[in-house]
Write a structure and sequence with these properties.
alpha/beta, 7-stranded parallel β-sheet, two-stranded parallel sheet, 9 strands, NAD(P)-bd_dom_sf, Nucleoside-diphosphate sugar epimerase
């Protein structure tokens, strides 16, 4: 039974072409609490759905957005794909914050974002450092509710989404199958769909303030 208090909502989603983003889109479209889903991105998805509206945007110059209730952000890349640290930061930090700010101007009070395990703005590791910087910038925006998912290594259909093969990642997952019982839950690989479901459920729970979802918590 749908809670009528949360029914008829409009969700904004950025990053729907990625592993967690595509799983989030599937979950949002199937969720009776959401009447409309607006996806923004640099290219259009092939998917069509009665609840879905798509808008092509430049993340460096976002237009005013239509009214939304909740915003979900699953933007991210790798250094290899981005080509430089500056280009990676432009998407993983600047674009994420720009989307959150634009959604806030459009009325959003609840934010769900995909970050990373170990995110820390003072980390010596570039990847975890920019994730930490992104989290701190989002918290300064002051959403009524902010949910931050911090998954470990993600698993899912990368090739089906047109993402490049990651040989080292595949080898790591094979090794993990043998040693998984010895590895703490927060460090075990996690399916993208589990992250998406946990993030959506946490935002829907509507707990004021900041909630961080560790990888072990999000394991189905």
């Amino acid at each position: 039974m749908v809670n009528t208090e949360h029914a008829g909502r409009t969700a904004l989603l950025a990053g729907a072409s990625g592993l967690v983003g595509s799983a989030l889109l599937t979950a949002l479209l199937a969720d009776a609490r959401y009447q409309k889903v607006l996806c923004i991105g640099r290219r259009k998805l092939a998917l069509q759905h009665p609840k879905l509206t798509q808008q092509i945007v430049d993340f460096q110059a976002l237009p005013a957005l239509p009214a939304v209730d909740d915003v979900f952000i699953a933007l991210g890349t790798t250094l290899k794909v981005a080509g430089s640290q500056a280009a990676m930061r432009a998407l993983d930090v600047d674009a994420v914050v720009a989307v959150a700010r634009a959604a806030q101007f459009a009325g959003a009070q609840r934010l769900g974002v995909v970050s990373s395990m170990g995110a820390d703005a003072r980390s010596a590791v570039f990847y975890t450092r920019i994730k930490g910087e992104m989290e701190e910038a989002l918290l300064r925006l002051g959403f009524a509710q902010t949910v931050i998912a911090q998954p470990s290594q993600l698993t899912g259909p990368r090739e089906a989404l047109g993402q490049p093969k990651r040989v080292a990642e595949r080898l790591g997952l094979q090794v993990m199958r043998w040693i998984k019982p010895l590895v703490p839950a927060n460090y075990q690989p996690i399916a993208a769909e589990h992250v998406a479901r946990a993030l959506l459920d946490a935002v829907a729970h509507n707990t004021p303030g900041v909630t961080r979802l560790l990888s072990g918590q999000m394991q189905a």
